[in-house]
């Protein structure tokens, strides 16, 4: 299975589309070229990290035993402000019931200074200045403070700081070394929920009872016409299927966007050898997967992936571009107009948050 996957050439025309997955054996340690294990990173726990009990009682305790959230972050334009990360974490708490009950890991990727060159360095344009590095260090310090201050959006959250540049894919690999649960909920600092999403428990129920499912992704606007696009581009007819009362659509191209997956599936992806330093898995593994399904057909190829979209017609996830994002004060300082779309999203979030809590503070985004 792995050899045929690794041998498949990537799709040259589609680098950011849909995706599927499959289970594999547990991997040990990080890439030795990155320093490996504890030498390449430091992890600190929040005050609540060891607690698995909550007001949710038995059901939430069960989720805490089964799922860990990994949030990936890296240097962005708005550092040292934590407004983007705070907003993202808040949308996850407010719009996805059950997230508050589970352990979370924020993995902070390393970086390459603009004076560095050679193997492992970021490509030109992605290296950061000494000042930006200082801003990023301050950003990480503020994340620690959020985790230790009792902020409800960062409850049960640990911070994993990587000392070298990894990229999203290999940063995930480092974080997975600290995951002891069967499932992992994967998030990125600039992928947010924009409305109420299917709760965590029903998704876990699918994974518990349907072993052919390894990955369930939430819909974005890019995927709403996914089935028609796959027919038009590849001649594939992709019927949906029901599992534990949820409608799922087979996804032929793994996506990094908000999803829950078997921890073993992520480990399987690393074993294929398709994910290298600086890679996003959807650009490498995802393209290989798509080629496999197109070349060999859904019936023969898809089963080993088992990746699905939650096909409920609700586009609940949005990309807020971290490379260009600035918080409210930063925009004012530069004389930029307010972002009406973001302001509307924040207003809706705060209104939804008021329904469940009276302690929420106005957003600084």
Could you give the topology of this structure?
Elements lengths: L1 H6 L33 E5 L11 H10 E7 L9 H13 L7 E6 L21 H19 L8 E6 L5 H9 L6 E6 L2 E3 L6 H10 L5 E3 L8 H9 L6 E3 L2 E5 L8 E4 H9 L13 H12 L1 H4 L5 E4 L6 E3 L8 H7 L5 H17 L9
Parallel strand pairs: 2-3, 2-5, 3-4, 7-11
Antiparallel strand pairs: 1-4, 5-10, 6-12, 7-10, 8-9, 9-11
Helix pairs in contact: 3-12
Walk me through this protein's architecture.
With about 375 residues, this protein is α/β, with parallel strands linked by helices. The protein is built from twelve helices and twelve strands. Strands 1-4-3-2-5-10-7-11-9-8 form a ten-stranded mixed β-sheet, sandwiched between helices. Strands 6-12 form a two-stranded antiparallel ribbon. The model is unreliable at about 1-40 and about 50-55 (pLDDT under 50).
């Amino acid at each position: 299975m792995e050899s045929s996957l690794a041998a498949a050439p990537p799709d040259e025309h589609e680098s950011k589309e849909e995706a599927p997955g499959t289970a594999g054996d547990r991997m040990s340690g990080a890439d030795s070229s990155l320093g490996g294990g504890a030498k390449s990173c430091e992890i600190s726990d929040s005050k609540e990290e060891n607690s698995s009990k909550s007001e949710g009682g038995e059901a939430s305790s069960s989720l805490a035993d089964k799922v860990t959230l990994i949030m990936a972050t890296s240097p962005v334009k708005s550092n040292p402000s934590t407004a983007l990360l705070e907003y993202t974490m808040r949308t996850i708490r407010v719009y996805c019931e059950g997230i508050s009950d589970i352990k979370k890991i924020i993995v902070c990727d390393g970086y390459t200074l603009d004076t560095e060159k050679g193997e492992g360095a970021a490509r030109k344009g992605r290296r950061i200045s000494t000042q930006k590095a200082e801003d990023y260090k301050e950003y990480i310090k503020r994340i620690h403070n959020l985790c230790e201050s009792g902020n409800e959006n960062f409850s049960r959250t640990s911070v994993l700081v990587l000392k070298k540049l990894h990229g999203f894919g290999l940063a995930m690999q480092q974080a997975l070394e600290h995951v002891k649960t069967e499932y992992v909920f994967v998030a990125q600092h600039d992928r947010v929920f924009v409305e109420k999403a299917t709760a965590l428990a029903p998704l876990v129920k699918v994974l518990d009872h349907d072993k052919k499912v390894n990955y369930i992704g939430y819909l974005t606007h890019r995927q709403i016409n996914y089935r028609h696009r796959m027919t038009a581009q590849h001649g594939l007819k992709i019927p949906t299927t029901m599992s534990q009362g949820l409608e799922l659509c087979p996804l032929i191209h793994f996506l990094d966007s908000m999803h829950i997956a078997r921890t073993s599936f992520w480990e399987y992806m690393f074993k294929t050898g398709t994910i290298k330093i600086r890679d996003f898995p959807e650009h490498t593994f995802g393209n290989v997967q798509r080629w496999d399904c197109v070349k060999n057909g859904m019936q023969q190829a898809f089963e080993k992936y088992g990746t699905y979209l939650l096909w409920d017609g609700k586009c609940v996830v949005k990309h807020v571009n971290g490379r260009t994002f600035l918080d409210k004060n930063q925009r004012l300082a530069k004389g930029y107009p307010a972002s009406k779309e973001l302001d509307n999203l924040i207003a809706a979030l705060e209104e939804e948050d008021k329904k469940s809590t009276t302690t929420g503070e106005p957003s600084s985004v």
